[in-house]
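Re: the multi-chain job from yesterday

Posting the exact lines I submitted so nobody has to dig through the queue logs.
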Amino acid sequence: MSVGKPTPSQRGGAAVPDEKRAAFQILVDRVLRGPGDTTAEQRAEAFENPGADPLLGKVATDPTEIADADFAAARSAGLGDDQVFELVIAAAVGQATRMYDAALAALDEAAG
Amino acid sequence: MRPDVLNHGYRPGTRLLFAVVRLFSGRPLPDAAKLVFYRPDFYGDPAKRFTHRAMRGPSAWSVGDRELMAAVVSRANRNAFCIGAHTATAEQAYADRPRVAAVLADLETAPVEDGLRATLRMLDKLTREGTVDAADMREVLAAGVTREQISDALAVGAAFNVTNRLADAFDFRVLDEEGFAAGAKFLLKRGYQ
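And the result, structure tokens for all chains:
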């Protein structure tokens, strides 16, 4: 998916303006494009393709399996605590965004 | 919490706030509350604004309904901290502990309205399977739930599909029953902002 792509609801397809989705988008935009200790490219990768990294993959799809060893591996790969903090958040927000937008698209289709 | 910077990396004024809360409440601030004070410009401030709007903003759903949705989503994600926190908050919001317990024990037989049941079923499926389709949404609409109510429920789902993941990743400490009850009282008084 493209990062921050507006949903049909945001484009005006919904019966009412979805102010809550708009507030969520502010969070998405801040995490992806605001200042940080990681690059915007690193955060976009964590957001869109978390499975490429063991820790971030678990954040997206198997968070109860995350262990201290996953954080130790991230440190061994050269990441500092603030970088891990940012990438974990990007992975979590990315997965939630895909679910949220899939559900809103299903709602748009069902409601016509 | 992990990484360690989430235990010690706060600004002096924030550390003082944590100490004052501990002094007056007799409890440390829960990790969910501490997290939003760490580099709040990056995550905490926009996350609080969105979550408060989802959980306390205008909606046809009651606060109790939305806290129950948060508990159901958290249970689908098997996140112990958020299950405890939002079960306690829903119980206090409804002033009806058996209602919440019945939903979490068996949604299909719980004594709740058909529209709420259908909405909780959809949120549970979305969280467990990662997606839902138009047929799932038609079932919720057929139960009398409006399009706007479904959008509102999806916002609750999004908030807790982020928070549950961060609670596991950052290893939030699970509170005892009194701790969750105290947190619920705070959330009902002040919300998420």
